[in-house]
Each structure stands twice: as structure tokens, then as C-alpha cells.
TrEMBL record:
Family: Belongs to the sigma-70 factor family. ECF subfamily.
Residue ranges annotated for the RNA polymerase sigma-70 region domain, each copy included: 17-78
Key words, A-Z: Sigma factor, Transcription, Transcription regulation
Protein name (record): Sigma-70 family RNA polymerase sigma factor
Residues annotated as domain RNA polymerase sigma factor 70 region 4 type: 109-160
Chain ranges of the DUF6596 domain: 178-278
Top-level lineage group: Bacteria
One term of GO molecular function: sigma factor activity
Annotated source species: Leekyejoonella antrihumi
UniProt-listed GO biological process terms: DNA-templated transcription initiation
């Protein structure tokens, strides 16, 4: 990769959401914002090779995207409105960051997560507009076809435009009703960064995890007493703390039980534990993110994987299943059950999820590991083959391939 290609890739990771948000705020149209941002990055490929990489790539891209948006609006209007043209050009100054509550990316998330949209559409649109994920990556996150996801996002943008949904952070009284979709979107943005689903991306994308944490902190400043906001922040911090130990120097995924716990970020773990303790002390009934944060707190409290309190983990998953009886939660619970009651009991639970999760790589990987532990090598090898076929992440593929080959 050349220096320019590396700079553009880095800018896309770090600046995509900022550019889209700035243009969307200015022109109030998500289609225009997305297309203008894409055109700005395409222009950068040619211009930066000739002119050199600018000192502030984000400012360059934002200014270019604004001009691309103006060009498109001019073409679509096809009229000689000198006054409007002068206003657009006069406002086209350099990009300037805004304060926390005025953060353009936070505004963009709230417009993507408007209650007029179905929940899945809110999350998918946020992944696209804020996370900068490709359509295949978003489709994999939802376990649907790419064309299906493309139609959902197109309809969502059209509904926002037709309903003239305002580009702003909601008023204080409207925030609680809007925040659930925002948290769900941020959680998926974080997950994509912590273990990217695409085969052509870095296994770990710190730009996405850092942005998800930053925006969750902003939402916490708006809703400091919301237990689920605090829970999601704690969950992100406790998960991000393990990032340095997540992938080996050779590029292979390292499972939680095999990670070097000395490489974990002690400050992030301490903050995450403090937030979990605060929520427990509140006496309020925990929501989904608070329970997930508590599960991660149990894992990160143990100095060695063998010291993990699996009975507490299973008990927390039992709470979570009552709130969220999804197949993926049941699958994660089965992993904990395997440590407490053995792989045979866990496998029975996993096999009951086949109809719902057979096409999900984590299901096949979990089943393969349980079969391996039971000595059923041929069946384990077949399950590993399916998991490798379904996995998109290069680090995960490398890990699964090694475990399969060890069966020989």
C-alpha cells in the first residue's frame, strides 16, 4: 500500500462519520451527504497523489464534500438562483469541530435513530452513515442478504427525507424514547470494531471502538442517570480493555481463556468495574447492557481464566435470557454452561439452536469446540469447516483453521 493509499484508508476510518455528519447538518439530506462524502474520498485518491497529503485530511475532505454537495444541488435545481448560490458559497468555510452536545456525529446518530423508523432500519442506517460500514458488513451483522439490507437503508433515508425529520439532538423530554435505538446502533458499531466481519479489513478496528465509546460518553452526559447508557459504556470499556490481547502477533484470534491478562488495560477495567458497581448499588432492575457489563466484570475480575466464577456467569445469563430470549444469547449461555456442567450438557443446548443459527459462524465454532472436547473428532472437523466457511474475519479464520488442523 502506498503512502497516499494508507492515508486515505486511515482518513476513511477516522473521518467518514465526521464528513457525512457535517454535510448532513448543512444540507439536511442523508443521500446527498453520503454521496458527497464518497465523491470527496474518490477525489482525494487523485488529488493527493499530485498535491500531496494535506496537513488536515479531515478538513480537506469535509470542505471537498461540501462543494460536491453544492455541485449536485446546482445540477438538480437547474436554475439560476444567484442569491441561494451566494449563500451556499459564503457558508462553505473550513470544517470546525463543535462542542460535546453540539457534536455533529451525535446529531447524525439521533436522526438515523428516529422513532419513525423501524428498529432494524435505525441500527442499519447508523452503521452505514456513522460507522461507515459497507453493505456486506451490515448485512452480515444482521444475518440477511446484502440486497435486503440495501433496500432497508434506502427506504429509511427516503422516510427521513419525506418526513422532514430535523437534524438535531432531541429535547430533554424526548431523549429517553429515542435512546434505545441509539444504544443498539452504537453497540453494533463497537462490535464491528472489536471483531470486524469483513475479510478485507483489519481484524480489529480501533477507530470504530473509540468512536462508539466517545459517543456513548456524550449520551451519558445527556442522560447521566440512565442505567442502560451506563451499562453500555461499562460493557464497551471492559471489552475494549482486552483489545491488545485479542489478536496474536501472527494475526490469529486469541480466545478469552488464552489471553495474556497482563496485557489488558487496567484503567479501562477499573472504570468499567466502578460503573458496574454503581449500577448494582442503585438497586434498579438491570437492563440488557447492564447484565452484559456484569458478565464482563466477572470475566475481567478473575486474574486467571481458571478463577472465573462460572456459576455467577450462568446466573447472569439466566437473567439476560428472561429479558432477551434470542438464540444468540442462548448460545453464549451454553458456552458458560460448558464450563460449569460440562460440554455434553452444553452441546444439547446448542443443538436445539440449529434451525435459528446454522448459518452463523459463531454457532458452528461453538459446536465444533464442544465436539472436540467430547472426542468426536470427525464431527468437530466438519463443524470447524462450516465455521471457517462462514467466518469473515481473518484472525478468526486463522484461529479456527489451526484448531481444526490440530484434530489430525
Amino acid at each position: 500500500m502506498t503512502q497516499v493509499e494508507d492515508a486515505i484508508a486511515r482518513a476513511h476510518h477516522e473521518e467518514w462519520a465526521r464528513v457525512v455528519a457535517a454535510v448532513a447538518r448543512r444540507f439536511g439530506d442523508l443521500d446527498i451527504a453520503e454521496e458527497a462524502a464518497a465523491e470527496a474520498f474518490a477525489t482525494a485518491v487523485a488529488r493527493w497523489r499530485v498535491d500531496g497529503i494535506p496537513a488536515n485530511p479531515g478538513a480537506w475532505l469535509t470542505t471537498t464534500a461540501r462543494r460536491k454537495a453544492i455541485d449536485r444541488i446546482r445540477r438538480e435545481r437547474k436554475r439560476d438562483d444567484k442569491q441561494e448560490e451566494a449563500r451556499m458559497l459564503r457558508d462553505d468555510g473550513p470544517f470546525e469541530p463543535r462542542g460535546a452536545i453540539e457534536d455533529d456525529r451525535l446529531r447524525l446518530i439521533f436522526i438515523c435513530c428516529h422513532p419513525a423508523l423501524a428498529m432494524e432500519a435505525r441500527v442499519a442506517l447508523t452503521l452505514r452513515m456513522v460507522g461507515g460500514l459497507s453493505m456486506p458488513e451490515i448485512a452480515r451483522a444482521f444475518l440477511v442478504q446484502e440486497t435486503t439490507m440495501g433496500r432497508r437503508i434506502t427506504r429509511a433515508k427516503a422516510k427521513i427525507k419525506a418526513a422532514r425529520i430535523p437534524y438535531r439532538v432531541p429535547s430533554t423530554q424526548d431523549l429517553p424514547a429515542r435512546v434505545s435505538g441509539v444504544l443498539a446502533a452504537l453497540f453494533l458499531v463497537f462490535n464491528e470494531g472489536y471483531l470486524a466481519s469483513g475479510p478485507d479489513t483489519d481484524p480489529l478496528r480501533h477507530d470504530l471502538t473509540a468512536e462508539a465509546i466517545r459517543l456513548t460518553r456524550l449520551i451519558q452526559s445527556l442522560l447521566p442517570k440512565d442505567g442502560e447508557v451506563v451499562g453500555l459504556l461499562a460493557l464497551m470499556l471492559l471489552t475494549e480493555a482486552r483489545r491488545a490481547a485479542r489478536v496474536s502477533p501472527s494475526g490469529e484470534l486469541v480466545t478469552l481463556g488464552e489471553q495474556d491478562r497482563g496485557a489488558w488495560d487496567a484503567e479501562l477495567i477499573a472504570e468499567g468495574h466502578r460503573l458496574v458497581r454503581e449500577r448494582v448499588a442503585s438497586g434498579d432492575a438491570p437492563g440488557r447492557y447492564q447484565i452484559l457489563a456484569a458478565i464482563n466484570a466477572v470475566h475481567t475480575f478473575a486474574r486467571d481464566a481458571r478463577d472465573t466464577d462460572w456459576s455467577q456467569v450462568v446466573a447472569l445469563y439466566d437473567q439476560l435470557v428472561r429479558l432477551d430470549p434470542s438464540p444468540i444469547v442462548a448460545l453464549n449461555r451454553a458456552v458458560a454452561v460448558a464450563e460449569l456442567d460440562g460440554p455434553q450438557v452444553a452441546l444439547a443446548s446448542v443443538d436445539r439452536l440449529a434451525d435459528a443459527l446454522a448459518g452463523y459462524h459463531a454457532y458452528q465454532a461453538t459446536r465444533a469446540d464442544l465436539l472436540r472436547r467430547l472426542g468426536r473428532r470427525d464431527q468437530a472437523r466438519a463443524a470447524y469447516d462450516k465455521a471457517i466457511e462462514l467466518a469473515g474475519n481473518t484472525a478468526e479464520t486463522a484461529y479456527l483453521t489451526r484448531r481444526r488442523d490440530q484434530l489430525r
